[in-house]
Amino acid sequence: MSKPNILLIYTGGTIGMVKNPDSGALKAFDFNNLLKRIPELRLLDCNIETISFNEPIDSSNMSPKYWGMIADSIETNYKDFDGFVVLHGSDTMSYSASALSFMLENLCKPVIFTGSQLPIGDLRTDAKENLITSIQLASLQDNGVPIIREVGLYFEYKLYRGNRTTKINAEHFEAFASLNFPHIAESGVHLNVSTSLLLKPNQSSKLIVNKQLDTNVVVIKLFPGISELILKTVLSSKDIKGVVLETYGSGNATTEDWFITLLSEAISRGVHIINVTQCAGGSVFMGQYETSSQLKDIGLISGKDITTEAAVTKLMYLIGQEIEPSEFKTIFETALRGEMS
Hints:
Oligomer: single chain
Number of helices: 9
Number of domains: 2
CATH architecture of the largest domain: 3-Layer(aba) Sandwich
Structural class: alpha/beta
Helix content: 25-40%
Largest sheet: 8 strands, mixed
Order of helices and strands: EEEHEHEHEEHEEEEEEEEEEHEHEHEHH
């Protein structure tokens, strides 16, 4: 059986940097010379090719335009490669992994995002392990069929479902967490994959790439003392189409009349408002407490246990699909790519 073909897509970020030994300044290295930089890759039982953004970006500048470029790279090379590894800055990696999970409909091959906290040329770098193991995971097959057939995020010995992750630490190597869903694989002496947790798409379905994302959305985080005037200004914008509302606990919010009225008026204008918890873990249960009953009554959409990153990108995706208003709530509250329980 032939070796799996893996395509590395470099978008930018710390993982692709090397430090000038004299000045200490970081600069991107040429990924065409990847095997020279990491000779251990020659030991992997797969064929590796690389492509790179013409101008690699800091992940703080990531946007739907670049998500489209990543999706284009995967779509163009989908037939020729068995797996894809996307090298990406860690700051917005959870947003990108979530976005690509929705954009790549009927995905039947692994797309694994990874990066690092230290440059690949640093003496104590985490980049080599993250990169090597991500390639190994993307290469896993069973009778020629990829074992992982979804968008994942690999960091510090764990592979997570990409749209379940959040970056929780800017300093530790263990930068990401998936608090509402178990990691799907772990790297130790052996690679242990929890196959029962993996998505199982229909292998016969053709890949559909959805690049129509609508960015007329906003995230509003509730806090004690939030201003009526400021909230009114945001919600009354003519261009706004969707809101991710980060509420307290299990989906609770103030019961002030002005607050409920503003949300109700926005919903009546066709604005989709998603209720997600601002807690790191847990789920929204509207109606469990009196402080969420009114939100349920006026038609807020429950984000259940979705992350804010996945809620934002799912909202962009669904608005871009021009779904009928009568169906939008039901579709959002349904798990499309394993992003919610």
